[in-house]
Write a structure and sequence with these properties.
With 475 residues, the chain is an alpha/beta fold. The chain has helices at residues 11-19, 61-69, 98-101, 106-130, 138-147, 154-158, 163-173, 185-195, 211-221, 265-271, 277-285, 327-330, 348-352, 359-374, 405-408, 427-452, 470-474; strands at 2-7, 25-29, 40-43, 46-49, 73-75, 82-85, 88-90, 204-206, 225-227, 230-236, 241-247, 250-261, 288-298, 311-313, 321-324, 340-347, 382-395, 415-417.
Length: 475
């Protein structure tokens, strides 16, 4: 019997497995690779990237994991606030000034300014809500974040807007994988707190690409990682859990004292058949939006206008944002070296519009818009391009999501849940919940181990006053 089975080889499952690596564990991943929505591939000095691209900084669970595994991350160089809209590229500066600089109809400009004042007031309230309070747990703080403005959508918060104003707001909140008419108002306001530079954001990048972290953990775990293992069912026994899965065309099962269930909520809802009914129902109510992304490797030989930019928001395009994956490399150069790497990202309804298209069609669609954003001639420098898609890309906070949180945190008696759907910080939430699930499993395993160790027989000692002489015994 295994000490623990980790179901899911994404960032949450790998984080849990890393913390449980000194126990007898097995990790089951249905895909042919680990990492889940973390996916990058090295190409010489550069890397292609399709998934998560920025991570949390010092003092975070992410920072702990990086230090333990021995992987380097650095602050992302280059502007995070560039915007391309209506033929104008704004490189940096105060976001609040953008409505005055982007060409748009007067009615749209007025709506942006009015909405911006309303948003600024809401962001101030949000910052008071998310501030850590003395003595509170992370779970208490997370619940408060979910509770903030969770009874209406972001669209209901802003009201109807002219097209350009609506698109300018949408391009920010859609990065959550939810759209203005499906995303909770509080979640959208939280995104604007990051854009305006007030929130604690995800602003570091992993040197060599994000998969450097996930593959490093997988290598450390060795043959305890089983790829192509699609879990069908997880069920409790008296003092253990049985995990049934299919691998290489065969039905298999493994029994363990504990299970860390680190799959998307949609999968957890399906396979964890005997979790408490209300927990399974809550898992089934978690909502995901799609991701579609493309990665472009280039061979330009000289400087480009975007060399000092990292993120370019792109309203009214097929993708919401273009990301300069060569930014970290650029910051280490004395002289600009040939080549580069660009990632495009279509979440929410933008991704949904592309899900049924072929990879070639996605690449062509994104490339056409990149020509408009980065300038004519960009396509001529592309030497390699690939698309990737996730139908269940990211979980997002919808109206009513806050009510699910207390139930989701309960899990089962020997099945512990982990995943980015349990919080609002994406990769940081995945790692934090992976660590927490591993801690709960280790605590239970430690208790089980103590119970299995034979206890020495007790020797009964008498108090000196109880000792009687042989004569008294004879009498």
């Amino acid at each position: 019997m295994k000490d623990a089975v980790i179901v899911g080889g994404g960032l949450a499952g790998l984080s849990a497995a890393w913390r449980l690596r000194h126990w007898d564990i097995e990790l089951l991943e249905s895909d042919h690779r680990v990492g889940g929505r973390i996916r990058s591939e090295r190409r010489g000095r550069y890397w292609l990237n399709w998934g998560g691209h920025v991570i949390a900084g010092p003092g975070s669970s992410t920072d702990e994991l990086l230090n333990e595994v021995g992987v380097t991350a650095v602050a992302v160089p280059g502007s995070l606030k560039a915007l391309s809209m209506n033929g104008r590229l704004l490189r940096n500066g105060r976001v609040a000034s953008y409505p005055f600089l982007i060409p748009m109809p007067l009615a749209a400009r007025a709506a942006v300014l009015t909405g911006g004042v309303k948003l600024a007031a809401a962001v101030a309230r949000y910052l008071a809500v998310v501030r850590q309070r003395p003595g509170e747990s992370g779970a208490q703080r997370q619940q408060r974040i979910y509770d903030f403005e969770n009874e209406r959508t972001f669209h209901e918060f802003t009201g109807d807007l002219p097209e350009d104003a609506a698109e300018l707001f949408k391009v920010t909140v859609i990065r959550s994988a939810g759209d203005p008419d499906t995303l909770a108002a509080g979640a959208g306001i939280g995104y604007f707190s990051l854009v305006l530079g007030f929130g604690e954001g995800l602003n570091r990048g992993i040197v060599g690409g994000p998969s450097t972290l996930t593959e490093s953990i997988a290598v450390a775990l060795g043959d305890r990682v089983r790829l192509g293992a699609a879990v069908q069912e997880i069920a409790h026994r008296k003092d253990s859990v049985v995990v049934r899965y299919r691998q290489d065309g065969e039905e298999r099962e493994v029994e363990a004292r504990t299970v860390v269930l680190a799959t998307p909520a949609t999968v957890a809802h399906r396979v964890a058949v005997d979790l408490p009914v209300d927990v399974r129902e809550a898992l089934g109510k978690v909502v995901y939006g799609p991701h579609v992304s493309a990665a472009f490797l280039t061979d330009e030989t000289g400087p480009r206008d975007w060399d000092d930019l990292y993120a370019i928001a792109t309203p009214k395009r097929s993708f919401a944002i273009a990301l300069n994956q060569a930014s970290i490399v650029r910051s280490t150069e004395r002289d600009r070296q040939p080549g580069g790497s660009i990632m495009t990202f279509s979440p929410g309804s933008l991704g949904r519009a592309l899900l049924e298209k072929s990879d070639d069609e996605i690449v062509e669609t994104h490339l056409a818009d990149l020509e408009r954003v980065l300038g004519a001639g960009f396509a001529g420098s592309v030497v390699e391009a690939h698309a990737s898609r996730w139908e269940d890309g990211s979980p997002y906070s919808f109206p009513g999501r806050a009510k699910l949180q207390p139930t989701l945190l309960r899990g089962g008696s020997r099945v512990f849940l982990a995943g980015d759907y349990l919080g609002t910080l994406y990769t940081e939430t995945a790692i934090t919940t992976g660590f927490s699930a591993a801690q709960e499993a280790a605590s239970l395993l430690a208790t089980d181990r103590q119970r299995r160790v034979p206890r020495p027989a007790r020797l009964t000692q008498r108090h000196p006053s109880d000792r009687r002489s042989p004569d008294s015994l004879a009498s």
